[in-house]
Design brief:
Blueprint lengths: L1 E3 L2 E6 L1 H15 L20 E8 L2 E10 L4 E9 L8 H15 L4 E7 L3 H9 L3 E8 L2 E9 L2 H10 L8 H6 L10 E3 L4 E3 H5 L19
Parallel strand pairs: 5-6
Antiparallel strand pairs: 1-2, 2-3, 3-4, 4-5, 6-8, 7-8, 9-10
Amino acid sequence: MDLSGGYTLHRVPTATYREVYAQLEASAYETDSFDWGDREPAPAPRGPLWSWLISHAGRVAGWQASRAWDTRTAYMVNTALLPAHRGQGVYTRLLPVVLDALHAEGYALVRSHHHLTNNAVIVPKLRAGFRFQGVQIDEHGVMAILLRSADPAYAAYMDRRSGLTRYTDSVYFANNPELHRPCRLHVRNPFFSFSAGQLYESHPLGPGGLCSPFNRSPY
């Protein structure tokens, strides 16, 4: 598939991807990961693995590999561009192709992990509809967990759970009438005394906005 700018994406067998990765890994990555040495790894996770190579002028410029995470989720395991091919917008053009392929396989969700400071990848993914789902620490460091849904209803659900949108669904309110009520919480300790109701007027949701049904607080 043509990615424009002289770049082409090739679907390749897993064995081909792994051979290329083994040869070029050190050239593609500048970050540190724990070196397991010659320790024999456990069997790979079950499920299919999809792999692509990115070429430019007949030479490998990068790659992408994804696999099944669970019965509903695909996982973008590894994406890399060699240094000479970064900053060309290749990743932004590659991303929708890979996402369409994974969703076409029947996976409603696509998951990926990235270093928290890897803005070159995180920003395009957020623009493509990914949402932060958490943070974990593993052998690669402190990693952001991103998730993208192909189902608009679940994508909207994730936005509500993440605080990006308000709970405005009439069915949700019908089942949770207590969410209609404004929140008032009085806090008193030796250092300060105030009514959360006073703060509530300046809360982004405004008067009559929503609060958590668990703590009755606008925050």
